[in-house]
Every structure is written in structure tokens, then in C-alpha cells.
Amino acid sequence: MRPSLQAVALWGKRAPPHSITAIMITDDQQMIVTGSQEGQLCLWNLSPELKISAKELLFGHSASVTCLARARDFSKQPYVVSAAENGEMCVWNVTNGQCVEKATLPYRHAAICYYHCSFRMTGEGWLLCCGEYQDVLIIDAKTLAVVHTFTSSQSPDWVNCMCIVHSMRIQEDSLLVVSVAGELKVWDLSSSINSIQEKQDVYEKESKFLESLNCQTIRFCTYTERLLLVVFSKCWKVYDYCDFSLLLTEVSRNGQFFDGGEVIGAHRILIWTEDGHSYIYQLLNRWAQMGAAYKTFSGLSKSIYPADGRVLKETIYPHLLCSTSVQENKSHPFVMGYMNERKEPFYKVLFSGEVSGRITLWHIPDVPVSKFDGSPREIPITATWTLQDNFDKHHTMSQSIIDHFSGFIDGSVVTSSEYVPSLGKLICGCEDGTIIITQALNAAKAGLLEGGSLLKDSSPHKVLKGHHQSVTSLLYPHSLSSKLDQSWMVSGDRDSCVIWWNIFTEEILHKFFLEAGPVTSLLMSPEKFRLRGDQIICCVCSDHSVGLLHLEGKRCLLRARKHLFPVRMIKWHPVENFLIVGCADDSVYIWEIETGTLERHETGERARIILNCCDDSLLLKPESVLPVASETHKHKSIEQRSSSSYQLGPIPCPGLQVDLSRPFNVFATKWSHVGFHILLFDLENLVELLLPTPLSDGDSSSSFYGSEILRRAKSTVEKKTMTLKKNKTLSAEATSKPASESLAQGDSANKFSEENDGIKRQKKMKSSKKMHPEPSRRVDANLTIDTAKLFLSCLLPWGVDKELDHLCIKHLNILKLQGPVSLGLASNEDHFSLMLPGWDLCNTETKRDDSRVNLFSGKVLELSNKYIATLSNQLAIPRGLENKCNSLQDRLFLVNKLVTLMSFKSFLSNSSFKMESVHNKVKSPGSDILNMSSFYGYLRNGKNGSHVPEADLSLLKLISCWRDQSVQVTEAIQAVLLAEVQQHMKTLRKTPINSQPVSLAENGNCEMMQNVPKMEWAEELELQCIRSTLPPQTPVSPVNHDSNSNSANFQDAEDMPDRCVLEESESPGEPRHHLWLAKVCPCKVC
Amino acid sequence: MATAMAATAAERAVLEEEFRWLLHDEVHAVLRQLQDILKEASLRFTLPGSGTEGPTKQENFILGSCGTDQVKGVLTLQGDALSQADVNLKMPRNNQLLHFAFREDKQWKLQQIQDARNHVSQAMYLLTNRDNSYQFKTGAEVLKLMDAVMLQLTRARNRLTTPATLTLPEIAASGLTRMFAPALPSDLLVNVYINLNKLCLTVYQLHALQPNSTKNFRPAGGAVLHSPGAMFEWGSQRLEVSHVHKVECVIPWLNDALVYFTVSLQLCQQLKDKISVFSSYWSYRPF
Question: What is the pTM of this model?
Fold first, then answer.
């Protein structure tokens, strides 16, 4: 995913599945982090009143998440590390959902502990990991590179669990682990830091066989510094830490399996089970209890009470104080944890996550006590929540892309969908068997925007009826091979019926009945594979059979039904007409297509060789429905651990392999039965397409400039645009140089190489997958404008200022949002985050205000005020009207870029000198604009820095200062957008007073001139001329038909007294100001 | 379509009954069978801590190859560790007989066996608390359980079927070379691994490349078995493999274990298939 891509998610009514496999609460108790079997992480907001609400979903892992742990001192950096079954590790910044670092190592971790020893260690500390490998691995918390291992001299084995013991008494940190064989081992931690850094072998200090298997947890009692709690699946034990003597064994009753435990106080422990129960015990000392009575008549007490541990051994026993339980238990394994914070206002919290995706919290009282009669007290559930609850509660936000068709399809759910970029159409297969074909952009608008009802009726869509069961897979052959007919579409349903459609005439060309269970995927034979001149369709069904269909022949060529395991891979052998099927158990079946006979069946090594050697023939791998389902397959390579040739290629995240040459894309994802869509806006592309046609703003209603002229104009200016654009950004970029010159340089270079990488990969992917023939660059101008409008609608904070909203709707010709949008944010090409419905409630600092929609955070207002302040201080000239959309986009793009740089800061270590040389090499035409501009900027700066416009300089200073203040990209974008829009609207209001549109245009030109560096060329001027000859266009909403008379447009603005403008320049962000404003201002607008 | 709906209404009751039977009876029957098989498999690995304790029994394996008898090895396997090793090597040039053995105090863990064993015991652990008294409520639950078990079993099998591909420096650096009592001569490398059901021993004879050699030095990558001519850099020296000797011996119980893995994987998949059949009838609800 390119950094300039902005994603907006259209969730459906149903939440995506999130089977929790790992759960943790952050140290500040403001967030719950869960990892799922599906591979996503979910961030849940935890309010001070212990209310849970899901905030965002983090995508990045392609396999089930095995563990989560904090990866830094949380008060300094809110970083969390996650590890997946396939060896992927990610460090996430959980406040903004960005992936900070990632690595794939050939190890599967079961637990991770963060360790940092500030006075002996440089760097960010270590992640101590254990799992399905021998002993303990030490991984650098910052780079995720393996530092070293703790090795055992005695019977090395896998380690189940571990804990770090920090004892005040001994002034030494120790690492305690329990192996799968039940051996307790102790390593010195703080005193072996040096030897670890020098890569010397560090062996265990002590080891002891604990005589139980399946250890779940080991915990040290920090209150007494004496006891050690070890929880096994069938019993829990308490040991004396001094000599590891056994003090207590408690065996599980009625078949319960223990899952973990924690010491919650001196002699007080909490144990939880796999089925969601938990028990709080007081560890009692028999002698101490009866001591008082005992002492009176016996002088023995003194001799009995020496603290040599032997006495303890005989006297300790557990007393059950409290218990907790969940209602619907027994069916799912639970993952639980306990958060022990003694500082107010923190709570002691017991938390659990279920496979069903439910989170439950219990507030554990500081002093748990039993009932008066001594029987255990039941602690009630404090809070419980699921993703689905979020979706139900915020149903306006969980709009699916076709929800507005629900008029005639009641409650239908999209079960499969396919986006056809060449037509801009979205094909959705529904649960009830209908297939809806709609213009994707219109559908998105209708789903997102207010007043979409107008669009609902107008948006053309087709409904194909032919399936009786839910549609499970779709295929649009033309997008795979341009030679095929554009009207063809193939769909498969749950009843294993495959229909060949003509989507233009909406007729069924043929129905194939396979009788093999649900069709899980439809594939297309590669272009070079042809059977009598035609490509064929391959259907993979859920009974593991593969059917080959010949469309024109209307017949089924082959039914391959021998496979015992799910099909993972389909390969074609064009020369010999073989179909090679790879199964989940690593076996391979070779079918002869002509005769339909099974030619060969191979397993093991030979199967691997066969699959590898037909790599030159085209590979079509069915995307698995669930990432986990294909997991077993991916693991094949991980088995070869400790080999240097080991490589697990990065598995790109779903949703990122999209055709990037269009400003607007829809990506449809599907997890088991739930589908949702992600709209992707390519800012860079959008800006490029918009730039030459500022006039097209008025295009929708303009009477004197037809789109034909526009298009022609665009094509002539196209080339110039590129340079213009670069220079615009570069002039701006250059100004940031004085502030952070070397920094930006280094960053951009690094980023460039990364991006280049990404692009290369994308290209490779494209060629290997034969996605599309190079699509034409010509995109419909209307589409571009519409896309930009939709995008602006999605980003604007609505309801902050009613008047502003009004003006926006009127003059920018955009529509208000129905509800907050779920924005996506990419950290790199395969890690991104998506907001969930209801994320807007997670901002604790802003009070919920129903009129406000889509305000990312309270910070935005603050930021935009700062921005405006800088603007108005430095720039007396009002911003030009005529480049409204463009400069906005441009600025956004810039902000986006700038703040994204933040994440690449870490790479910065090289001198700017070296960077320069890198820059000089970088001259490929399609290179990153920022990069180019910074390069030019660097040159320019060296020669003549005085040309830098003052205003932009300070703005950029401000923005680069945001970058340091960890302002999130979305926040920055929205803030800048808001500020810019406010500025524009201000000028709009001023205009009628000046009533000199020409001067306005001039102003605009001035600004342009400022932005365009001195070494600009005649072409630029030419362009300027073109622009200045045109009267400024104001986009007009369809309701206002008089597009040419400016006065009519500004009627509203004219009504307003100057005061409003004044107020505008005051801080418009503060809500109370608005209350006040509403009372004072006589006009009804604000 | 209307008739189809009417038919399903009647069928539905039957289907639901059938599904209930599947969840309540059939699943448990399969799981019991699975547990039995896995128990057999794990017995082959002689899990420590399960059943009678005490020193695990030792097995001697005589490794040879059908071709030449230049290398002969007697390896003693104790559970997942090599406790003794005697390797006889007849030098090809002078027919000089070299003999080296493990140090008395040392054992060499065969990581592959240990991993496979641990994966099996994890699979068994997943099944332990799912006996008859446990009631499965949804098919999805069974599917998830089966996925988890299959994951462990696949890994167990893959650990045995795919030996690590090591580079020559990695072999030279491995602790195995330090295990021998008269230390291994510097021109010999030894590697031991499991491939499918076989215990394999490879002995590499090396010779140093002259620094002024005209030979194009290209370090070899990772491989299970390097061929003569493979080059690498060790310390400051450049070395080349001159001879490779590979001897192997079938470990019968590994063969059994592999068969058990395959059978239980198939059993799991069949159960999954049975459950999935019903997914066509239950619409979206995770059946």
C-alpha cells in the first residue's frame, strides 16, 4: 500500500470474525489489545469506567496470532509486539495503529517478555521469547533481530512459560522458565547482559524437575519475595523461591483445566481455568492462625516458628475467597489475564477473551473477602463486549456498500464480491442468491453520504437472479485476460451451481451443475494455456474436487475428485495438458485434462519437487477464505529452521494488491461468511489528475466548458502537470529543509528505496498473477472529480461549524456524511489499520456531541487553529479560489507525506552526504515525488534559499513540528483540511464585499507564482495564462442552477455580517464558543 | 424454487437431527479414535514423564550404505538423544582406518525428534479435555479444534520429513563436531539428521583451497546433503568438500509414527468434511 493511499472501509452489518487467541491490557489501562486466529489485532478502548468499545483493527499478520506483549517502557512509547504462528513478528504503536517494525523469523513464540535494564543496556531492550524451539531466544526490541539465546546445559527442550523475577533483596533480575517436560530453569538476567552482548553462552544457574506436565504459568510473588506460583493444566503448586521446595499442591477438581494464575497480594492468588472460571485463594498458615491460642499454653511456638521454610511447608493451605464465572462457558477455550495496578485510579482487573470474540472484564476488589459464612463470594462481571456489539450499536457507520438496495433485498448480506476496475463496477453476490452489479463510486456515495437517497434512486444497478443459494465466488474473466469478452461473468454458489452470465444483457449464458458442495473459488487458466484456442475456468469446490469448465463449449471438461485434503494450489502444464493440483497435506495430483484421468499422485519430497519445477508455468493459487486455513501450507517452509536459505516471502496482506493506476479502487475482502469493502483513494494520482483541470470544478454544471474540452486540455497539459506538481511540492518541501534538512533527506531516501521495493513487488505480483493488461491512464474526468469530492466528504470534520458545513455543501459541492467513516491507515505495504464503527466514541478528550460527525480527535481542532493562525499571520493574501480542490489535495498530500516520514525516522543514521549521492542516482521517471522534490529542494536551498515563500516556510515548520509531536497522519490531514476549507470559505464570504472576481484570480496567480520556483519555465506561465483567462469557477450544487452568476452563489455569504468572519479567525474549535456564538449571533446559520 | 423450499422444510428437521448426532456422538467417536492413534504415536517417542519413569531404553543402529563400506557408524539412540556414536572411516587414499566416538559425558539431542514429539504431545493435550463429558455446541468449534490438531500433526510430520538445510559453516560451527572424544580432525565434518524414517549420518572430507588457487571460489548455500566440490570459508581458510559419505539406517518406530501421523491427519480431515457438509444447509450462522 502506497503511503499516498487513503482507505475508507465500508463494513457490513456483521462484524468480521475475531477469534481471540491473545489478550492484554496496556499499562495505562486505556486500551485492550487482542490478537486473533484470523491474524488481525484489535484495539479496544477501555474507558475509566471500564466500558469497552472496539476502536480499530490492525492488519498485518497472515496467520494466527500466538502472543502479545509490550515492547517498550509503555509510559515512553506505547508499543506492543505481536507474534504469529508463521514466525511473523510486528511491533505496533497502539495509539495510532501503525506498524513500527516487522520481521519474520523461523520461530513460533508462545510467550514474550519485555526486559530492559536501563543502567546496563543500551538500546531499547530485549524481548525474551519462548515457544516451539529450544530454550529462550533474545530478540532486540527495536530491530527484532535475534541477539542471542539463553541455552541450557541440562536437557534442553521447548519452554512453555516464563517470568522475570526482579528481586529487591538480591538486586539481581532472574529469568524463570518451565520447559514442556516440566523442568524449572533459572538464568541470571542482569548479570549476564554483558556476556549476552558478547555472544557468549549463558547456561542456566539452577534447574529442578517439577514432576508435572503442561505448565501454563509461572509467577513470582513480589509482595513476599518468597513464593513462587506455578500453574499446570491439572494442578497448581506453590514453591518456596529460596530453595524451590514444594509448599502446596492443589489438584483440579471436576475435570477443570487450569490455564493461568497470578499473585494478587501477599499470600493471595488468583487462578483461572480454561473454561473461563477463576478463583481467588488466600494462602493460610495453619500455625499462624492458631498461634495465639497455641502460644498460651505451649512454649513450643518459638521452636516451631523459625523461618527455615520447613515449617511453612507443613502449614500452608488455600482458602477460597471469591470466584468468577461466565454464563456461556464450557464451549470455548478462554485466554485470560490479570492486571495488577495498585495506583489509583487504576483497577485490579481480570480479563478474558473468547474464541467467539467476546471480551469480559471483572473488577477485582482490592481486598477480596468471602461471605460472612465463609463461603466464596461471586464477583460479578463488570463489562463484556464483542465486535458485533460495536456494529449493532453504531449501525449507521457499519454501512455496507449495497445496503441502500435493501429496499428489495431484505437483510441480504454480501457473501462475495468482485471489483471490475475497467468498468468501475462492483459485482456483489448476496446470501439470497442475487447478484448486484453497480457503479462502485455511486454505491459508495450512497452508502456514506447524507442525502444519498437522491443517489439511491439514481444510481443505476442491475440485479441478476439465477442462483438459489448464496453466491460464494465470482470471476470476471476479462480482468484476467483482455482477450475475453467484456460482458462475461462467472459465478458459483453454495449449491455448486456455476452460472455464466452476460452482465450487459443480464442473461444467463449457461448453467453448470457440479454437485460437489459449495464452490470455494473460481479460477481462470493462464493466457498461454489454451484448450483448442480457449481458456478454461477452474472451479475448486469444498468437497476438495476440481472441475474444469469450458465456457464456449458449455461443458465440463474434467471432474477431479480424488483429493483427500483441501486444494491449495492449482498449476497448469501447457505442454502436456496437465492440471497439477497441490493439496493441504503436501501431496500432488496430476490430471490429464483431455482424458480426465489421474496421471500421478505423489507425496512428500517428490511432490514438493513437482510443484517447484512447474514454477515457470503459471501459478494460480486460490486465496484461502480464512488466512488460517492455508496456514498449514505456509508452514512448510518454516520447518527448515536454522537454515540460512530459509525464506518465507512476505505474504501480502489482503487488500493491497490492487491496481494502483486509478485514483479510486474498491477492494472486497471476505472472511468466512462476512464480506466488507475497502475504498482506496490514491491521493497522488488524484492530485495528478486534478491538477490540469481546475476548471473542471464547475464541470458538473458548467455550461460553457464541456468535458470534451477538458479532456483535451488535460491531455495537452498532462506532461506539464507532472513537472508543475513536482515543483509545487518541492518548493514547499524545500522550506522544511532548514528545520530538518538532513532528517528529511535521510528519511526520504530510505523511504524511496522501500517504496521502490514495494513497487517492484507489486509489479512482480502483477506479472506473475497476470492481473491486468496495463490499464489505460485515461480516467473519466467526472469520475475523478466525484472521487475527490467523496474523499473530501470522508475527511472533513462535519458539524464542527454548521455554517462551514453549509458552505462546504454549497460551494465545494460535496455532501455531508451520514456518520463517521472508518478510515484506514497504512504503515507500509502490508501493514495497515482500519477503524471500526464506533471509533469516534473512543476519544476520551472530546465529549460526545451528536452534531459532530467524523472528527478524528479533539486535537484536530487545536491543530487546525494553529495552522490557521500561521496562515493568517504570514499570509495576508487570501487563498485563491480557482485552485481550491487541487491545493487542498496537494497540501494534504504533503502533510500525509511529511507525517509518514515520522515512521521512517528510525532508519535515520546515515549522513546527509551519503543521502545526497543516493539522491543523485535516483532519477527514474516514475520516482516518488517527494523524493524528487526534496532532491531539488536540496539543490535549491544550497543555491538560493531566499525564494522560499515566507508563509509556506512557517506552515511547513508547523507541520514538521507536528511530526515530532506524534500527531497522527489522519489528524494532521483533517486539521489541515479543516483549516484550508475555513480559509477558503472565508474568502468566499469576503468575495462579495470585494466583488472583484478578477482580483481574486490574480491573487490566486500570485500564490501560484509563489509556489512555483523561480527556475520555472514558460510552460508554467502558459498554464497560468490559461487559468487566469478563465473566470474563477465556483462549483455549484445541482439545486442552484445559475452557475455563472457569482453573486447568486454568494448570496448566503453576503447575508452574513462581517462579524462571522471575525469569529472565524478566532478559535472556532472550542465547543463552548459555539454555544456562545449561537446565542449571540442573530443569523440562523451558525 | 417454492417446491424446493417446501422440501427443505421437511428435510431440515432430519438434517438438524443428523447434525446433532454428528456433534454429540460421531465427533466423540472420532476423537477417541484419534486419541488412541496419537497415544500409540507418542509411545513410540517414549515421552518422559508419561508412565514408567527411569532411564529411557537405548537402541543401537548400525548405519551403512549399500554401496561402499568406507564409513560405518554405530549410533545409540536414547529417546530423542544420541548417547553414543562410533564412526569408522576408511580413508579413500591410503585405506587408513579412522575411528572416533562420542565423549562419555555428552549427549546430542536430535532436535527433529524432540520437536516432533513435542508437537504430538501438544496435539494430544488439545484433545485431552474433549472427552465424552464435553459437549460440542457448534460445528465451528469442532473445525477449530481439528485445525489446531492438524496444525500440530502437520508440523510433527514435517519436522521429520524435512531435515534442516544447513550451510557448511553452520555444520562446522555446530556442537556436534565438538562431541567427539579424540577431537575430529580438522578436515572432517559430521552431520546427523532424520530424513523421513531414517537416521542419517554424513561425513564430509575437506581439503583446503590454496589461496592462489585459480579455482573460482563460490561458497555453497544451504543443503541437506552437500556434494563434493562445495566450497566454504571457515575461519580464515577456504575449504572444499572432497568426499561425501552418507550412511543411513531405518528407525522402525519413526516409520510407525509417520504412518500414525498420516492416518490421524486423514481422520481429522474427514471429520472436518463431515461437519462442512452441513454448512451448505445452515446459512450464515457458523453452523
Answer: 0.77
